[in-house]
Amino acid sequence: MRYSGAVNISSFHTHTRLCRHASGDPIDYVKVAASEGCSGLGISDHCPYPDGTWGGSRMDPSQVREYLSLVKAAREQAAFPFFWGFECEWHPKYESWYRDFLRAETGAEYLVYGSHWVEVDGCFEYIPDAGDPRNLKPYVDLTLEGLSSGLFDLFAHPDIFLAGFPRWDADLKAASKDIIAAAIAAGIPMEVNGLGLTKPRIAGPEGMRPPYPVREFLELAASEGAVLICNSDAHRPQDALAQARNAETWAYSRGIPTVDAIEALAFAKGPVRA
Ligand SMILES: [Zn+2]
Ligand SMILES: [Zn+2]
């Protein structure tokens, strides 16, 4: 369903206190969402890594059991479609971790791809802070690999890398086109991210703008035929749906068409993928 002025009442991108930089338990997100007439909610906290990568802002592998019990308790209270999974970065060395552990062993119902990092001298740097032109190609190459891995159901903040590259130019347009084409080829909806709208603005060619979402990227995505949905990326229960509504308003006011997430996400319509 194309956006027609209805209020967005779903989000499939939310976090919990377990990732160490968000607050609230899944049940708290369910309660807020219920009070706002939710049509569908997904809890997608940042996944842990077996080697402690980004351990200061990710849950520990030993907390996965707790996460499972929290999302299961939340599901019992949800009077609307409820799903749970993880938001993951991609790197080939973790492929089995994602496929065999997160998906198969824990039974995650969906995986969100958040392409937050670029590998620089063996370290994973946060792309908004690593906007060196030399990092663009490695970032795009890794992102294309992630999108075509077959692991992910949804591409979060596909334009986050542009936070590190505020001047839209031919190279960034080409990079964006490649990323958009890969998401379309993989059949993965892309997100208009509500959290980015709350972050400190950065200077772009047309003045100050949010670090993401980025109008130029999402206009290009829409013109290429990508499926765009609105998510909150809530890190506090009170933002569970509100930030997704903000994302929808932002897109609508720029003429960027978005689709109801429940309609767009295959896992939300049918049986859970094996
Ligand atoms: Zn993210
Ligand atoms: Zn997130």
Number of helices: 9
CATH class: Alpha Beta
Estimated helix fraction: 25-40%
Profile the largest sheet.
5 strands, parallel
**CATH fold label:** TIM Barrel
CATH superfamily: Metal-dependent hydrolases
Order of helices and strands: EHEHEHEEEHEHEEEHEHHH
Ligand types: zinc ion
The rough form would be described as globular
Spatially, the strands of the biggest sheet line up as: 1-2-3-4-7
Quick check: average pLDDT?
94
> What oligomeric state is this?
single chain
Distance between the termini: 27 Å
Question: Tally of extended strands?
Answer: 11
Rg from C-alpha positions? 17 Å
Q: Catalogue the unreliable spans.
A: 1-5
Structural class: alpha/beta
Strand content: 15-25%
Please indicate the count of domains: 1
CATH architectural type = Alpha-Beta Barrel
